[in-house]
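sorry for the late reply, my laptop died twice this morning and i had to redo everyting from scratch. anyway the thing you sent over, i finally got around to it. pasting the sequence first so we're on the same page, its 160 residues, then the predicted structure underneath. double check i copied it right bc i was rushing
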Amino acid sequence: MPDQEKKPRLAGYLDKQQPELYATLSHYAQQVVGEADRTGIPRRTIELLNYLASQINGCAFCLDLHHRRALGYGETEQRLSLVAVYKEVPMFEPAERVAMEITEQITRMSTSRPSPELFERARQHYTDEQISVLCLAAIGINAFNRLSILSEHPVRTAKK
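ok and here's the structure:
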C-alpha cells in the first residue's frame, strides 16, 4: 500500500492566520526576556528553560530554535544534550536546576502541580520577582510550543 500523504492539522500556520494575536504573543516573550534581563536572570538560563519545555512538549521547531539561541548565549552542546536528565548530572548549577524544575512542573501541570517546597527551594537562589519571571517564561514557551506544533512549523536544514 503506498504511503498516504500527510494531511496538515490546520489550513495554515496560526501565526499567519492571526498575525495580531501572534504579535501579542511575541511581545509577551520580549517582555519576559526584558524582565529576565532587568532582574538578573541570565539569558542562557531562559534558553535552558525554553529548550527543556520544548523537549517535554515535543516541539521540533522550538527545540531547533532554542538550541541555536542557547549556543549563541554560551551554552555548550554537552549541556544541551543532557537537559532531559538535568537532575541526574552535575553539569547544571543548583539555580539552573531549580529553574528547570519549575519549568518542568509548569509544563506538566495537567498531571501534577508545582509544590510549595519547590518554590521554597527556588527562594534559595532567586527572589520572588525572579521566580515570577521564570514562571512567566515557562508559560510563554508552552504557548509557543503549542502554536508551533499545531501549525506544524517546519525545521529547516541548517546552512553550513
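Helices lie at 14-17, 19-39, 43-57, 60-72, 77-81, 94-107, 116-122, 128-151.
thats about all i looked at so far, will dig more tmrw
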